[in-house]
Amino acid sequence: MSQERKRIVITGVGVLSPVGQSATELWDSLSSGKSGSGPITYFDATDFSTRFACELKDFNAEDHIDRKSAARMDPFCQYAIAASDQALKDSGLDLSAIDPARVGVVYGSGTGGMTTHDQQMRVYLERGPRRISPFFIPMLIPDIAAGQISMRHKLMGPNYATASACATSLHAIIDAWMLLQLGMADYMVCGGSEAAITPMSVAGFNAARALSTANDIPEKASRPYDRDRDGFVMGEGAGALILETMESAKARGAHIYGEIAGVGASADAHHLTAPHPEGAGAVTAMTNALNQAGIGPEEIDYINTHGTATPLGDLAEIKAIKRVLGEHAYSVSISSTKSMTGHLLGAAGVVESINCLLAMNNGVVPPTINIDNLDPEIDVDVTPNTPKERTINYSLNNGFGFGGHNATLIFKTV
């Protein structure tokens, strides 16, 4: 027996990013082409191949969380709390008037508590196993952010984490959408958080040859689609969305940022870290999302790409877009906001989803900055360096992760 599909909308957003710690600050930076990249300040990176990143500047956990609780949270969890608090406040939901069992949380992280991991590893090496903190595991595990959000707000609906590397938070949004479709909740908090600018993370990504090493020009190092791109710039931060049905949002007079019109997911089944060279999995994810939305490819106005500035990844995604959109690929506006925020790993998808919603609401396509020499194989409009005014009725957001995980969301104006 088929079930009538519900219309799911976004009524609250919260974000912490290297270029803004609110939706307003984020949009001001993205629409003006501001880079968040600079030298690493969290540790001495002198001996590292990469010595810069997009750090979350001027974040003070105690502005959001009491001191004792903050001390028992890894930064990724602190960020998650701050972003979800923003989103819930923005939504206008009165949680005291809602059955707590009808409010769920799906909130993920690609790496979890890497700062805690690095700190406790040093404790073990210098002082031995008996000096490891009893909070080590609860601070480390990626699902703890979802748990902490639920405990903070007494939310007793479905509660878990997604973990699919850099597709993590898009999968969290997809899962939240599905839970609402199934009637398992009336409201969902969803998104992702990451705080992986640590010695072990940077060294690990350097070993995988994934990071840019343009240490002399950090603010220009994140350069998707440029001929001289040499890897991504690590970023950090968090994002959160509040989802509910259109019926619910209208009944309570909520501000609606947009509707989730379609979702798609797939696997490359190809390689641990490299994308399928023809973007086969990305094609499937985008096609599924279009089918879910019930629209043709020609209706997509803007695509926020995964666009990490890796030589292989950027080309594979553009190939996939051209296969899915056909001739319309040459009319759609495309950009990678990772050129400004850096790559927020598991938090990238939700932060870029917020960008899509803000682009739709403002009628502006944010640019892909740092394109000095466009890759000759890129023959579509990637909005180089300068924002573009455009009516955006449908926007598409892609996210791909190590392991061949692919996710796509399509947003619709309301």
From TrEMBL:
Domain spans labelled Ketosynthase family 3 (KS3): 5-413
Pfam families named in the record: ketoacyl-synt, Ketoacyl-synt_C
Pathway membership: Lipid metabolism; fatty acid biosynthesis
Molecular function terms from GO: 3-oxoacyl-[acyl-carrier-protein] synthase activity
This protein's record includes keyword Transferase: yes
EC number, UniProt record: 2.3.1.179
SUPFAM superfamilies (UniProt xref): Thiolase-like
Keywords from the named record: Acyltransferase, Fatty acid biosynthesis, Fatty acid metabolism, Lipid biosynthesis, Lipid metabolism, Transferase
Family that this chain belongs to: Belongs to the thiolase-like superfamily. Beta-ketoacyl-ACP synthases family.
NCBIfam families registered for this protein in UniProt: fabF (TIGR03150), PRK07314.1 (NF005589)
Listed PANTHER family: 3-OXOACYL-[ACYL-CARRIER-PROTEIN] SYNTHASE, MITOCHONDRIAL, POLYKETIDE SYNTHASE-RELATED
The protein's name in its UniProt record: 3-oxoacyl-[acyl-carrier-protein] synthase 2
Organism field: Prosthecochloris ethylica
Recorded name of the encoding gene: fabF
